[in-house]
Amino acid sequence: RLRPLVQSQRTKVRFPRTHGCGHASSSRAREGARDARACFTTPIFYVNAAPHIGHLYSALLADALCRHRRLRGPAAPRFSTGTDEHGLKIQQAAASAGLTPAELCDRVSAQFQQLFREAGISSSDFIRTTEARHRVAVQHFWGVLEARGLLYKGLYEGWYCASDECFLPEAKVTRQPGPSGDSCPVSLESGHPVSWTREENYIFRLSQFREPLRRWLQGSPRAITPEPFHHAALQWLEEELPDLSVSRRSSLLHWGIPVPGDDSQTIYVWLDALVNYLTVIGYPDAEFTSWWPATTHIIGKDILKFHAIYWPALLLGAGLSPPHRICVHSHWTVSGQKMSKSLGNVVDPRTCLDRYTVDGFRYFLLRQGVPSWDCDYYDEKVIKLLDSELADALGGLLNRCTANRINPSGTYPAFCATCFPREPGSTGPSVRAQAEDYALVNAVATLPTQVADHYDNFQIYKALEAVSICVRQTNGFVQRHAPWKLDRESPADAPWLGTVLHVALECLRVFGTLLQPVTPNLADKLLSRLGVSDTERSLEKLFFLPRFYGHPCPFEGRKLGPETGHLFPRLDQSRAWPAKAHRT
Ligand code: MSP
Fold first, then answer.
1. How many CA atoms, within 13 angstroms, populate the side-chain half-sphere of residue 34?
2. What mean pLDDT do residues 104-113 have?
3. What is the pLDDT of residues 256-312, one digit of tens each?
């Protein structure tokens, strides 16, 4: 449907050499250098409606990845989020709310900022696409594409979906009965209404990028995670890849960034929005080159094509490499249905943070959200999960090992290597450790690596599951040795009692350290209770059970923190544990 009116001279597209579009040549050293400079991004959020839990989920995934990266080493990653404020959708939403677009943007952008502050999203930058720095970046980027001969003016005729801000081929449009019974054209994928558009626009030579994109994706099998989304992107390259209209007539779309040198056209909102990832690293100033392409984009599956096809093609067109990584997540539904204003089932994340606490709700979304498939939200599920894993299992474990009755001195007890010798199967009158205890030590010792691997694979839910399994195993260890039955005054029991508590506290120290990216306040409370100082909370400093391995333990004999309250109060009091079980 694209008929070029003025065809500028085609120039051959040159691709950057340095980052090789993911060629196998990437050495460990370069991976290392890339690791040192890392940038995480969330999508920038449309301001046509208030934030919901799906938006918070996108931001939380990025936040947890970034916090985990910070725990790993001294190099501070960058982390950006923000609001996507231009385009027809915003222009129309403002008009129907009786506001100017700028008023709507200010209002809703502030809601996102407040939500993210309250939810502990630790971003280092919040970008608004209406900022001057962004306009400079977008217009510069446009200029580069133009100078490289990748834009031409042409007639675009076809369907446009304002809700999704995208052009659609006929095959992706279907009819649905409208409010008055007439047949309305809608997007096959999203169900949103589409309208017929016929106008002269600037067009990007997307069709030239099929092969370079294929090379990039085939050469970097981990560029898009989880794998089915990588596969989907490659699949798109098997289909038609028409050139892309990248501007709209400004008489129709005035709320946006004007095409440099042609005020009659406004830059397409997706081009505008995607460039935010460069704006936040200082583009077009030279400093941006030390950060690009070390960026990991976290996005929802509905915007995969924009990030996996259009964005890398635009970048290649501008002489830059595709992003280091794109991590894709699926959607939250509510009681089996898509969240939507019209169905009235939108879950307000601020109510959830109030009801379940910040750490509780962060834990729920990240523990239950599985990027590969949609997840269903309902309140009972939150209560059940938080009560069993945070209140009972983790909170109960801490209680059992620090309660005054069992640990009256309020110190980190000593480990006795004779009771728990390094070699499993050792015999002797003082040996008390059993085979399952060695299994526990082994599981917790390898937990940080397991968790790091899960983060690397964008499977935070698996990292949390692994921690939860170890928490259960540690509770089993405590239950098995019933320290409350041991006699503190007996020379035979006392060292073993200390050892059981020492091992359990060491496990808790590992859990607290590893939970910091997901439940930062709860982890702080836990680590403070264990007497772990701020400088002892990184992954580098995490040496589990050093006494078992024959090294000194800096915690032994240390005073426990003074805060003795519940780590995570139960939400469902009616199903609280019987008081007796609580005490043990
Ligand atoms: N503005 C574009 C993104 C531009 S990025 C250069 C946009 N905004 S959005 O507000 O509609 O969506 C932002 C993010 O929220 C997307 O990653 C989207 O997938 C995510 N979610 C929107 N609804 C969702 C659920 N119901 N569940 C989970 N995430 C969902 O798209």
1. 18
2. 98
3. 999 999 999 999 999 999 999 999 999 999 999 999 999 999 999 999 999 999 999
User: What is the reported pLDDT for 430?
Assistant: 87
Instruction: Name the pTM for this structure.
Output: 0.91
Query: What would the mean pLDDT of 50-58 be, rounded to a whole number?
Result: 97
Closest CA to ligand 1's atom 29 = 54
Contact 324, 296 (CB under 8 A): yes
Whose CA is closest to atom 11 on ligand 1? 46
CA 540 to chain centre: 22
Please state the φ and ψ torsions of residue 244, each to the nearest 5 degrees: -115, 130
Q: Is the CB of 209 under 6 A from ligand 1?
A: no
- Indicate if ligand 1 lies below 6 Å from the C-beta of 339: yes
Cα 241 to ligand 1 centre (Å)? 24
| The pLDDT of residue 481 | 97
Q: How far apart are CA 558 and CA 479, in angstroms?
A: 24
Residue from 521, 480, 505 nearest 390 by CA: 521
Q: What is the mean pLDDT of the chain?
A: 91
The reported pLDDT for the residue numbered 575 is 52
Q: What architecture (CATH level 2) is domain 3-157+200-356?
A: 3-Layer(aba) Sandwich (3.40)
DSSP helix/strand/coil, 377:
strand
More reliable by pLDDT, 49 or 73: 49
> Ligand 1 in contact with 54 (CB < 6 A)?
yes
Cα radius of gyration rounded to whole Å, the chain: 28
Centroid of ligand 1 to alpha carbon of 573 (angstroms): 35
Contacting residues for 489 by C-beta, under 8 A, at least 6 apart: none
Residue-wise pLDDT tens digits, 219-236: 999 999 999 999 999 999
Read off φ and ψ for residue 317, nearest 5 degrees.
Answer: -60, -35
Give the residue-averaged pLDDT of 363-377. 97
**Alpha carbon 44 to chain centroid distance?**
13
Rounded CA gap, 325 and 305, in Å? 14
Residue 23 clears pLDDT 60, i.e. is over it: no
Exposed, middle or buried, 64 (CB in 10 Å: 0-12/13-18/19+)? buried
Whether 433 and 420 have beta carbons less than 8 Å apart is answered as yes
Q: Which residue has the higher pLDDT, 210 or 492?
A: 210
Residues of the chain with CATH 3.40.50.620: 3-157+200-356
Task: Please report, as a single letter, which amino acid is at residue 116.
Answer: F
Q: What digits encode the pLDDT tens for the residues 491-537?
A: 999 999 999 999 999 999 999 999 999 999 999 999 999 999 999 99
Confidence of residue 32 (pLDDT cuts 50, 70, 90): very low
- Atom number, ligand 1, closest to the C-alpha of residue 374: 27
Superfamily for domain range 379-583: Isoleucyl-tRNA Synthetase; Domain 1 (1.10.730.10)
The per-residue DSSP string of 149-166 comes to: T-EEEEEEEEEEETTTTE
Determine the distance separating the centroid of ligand 1 and the alpha carbon of 48, expressed in angstroms: 12
3-class secondary structure, 522: helix
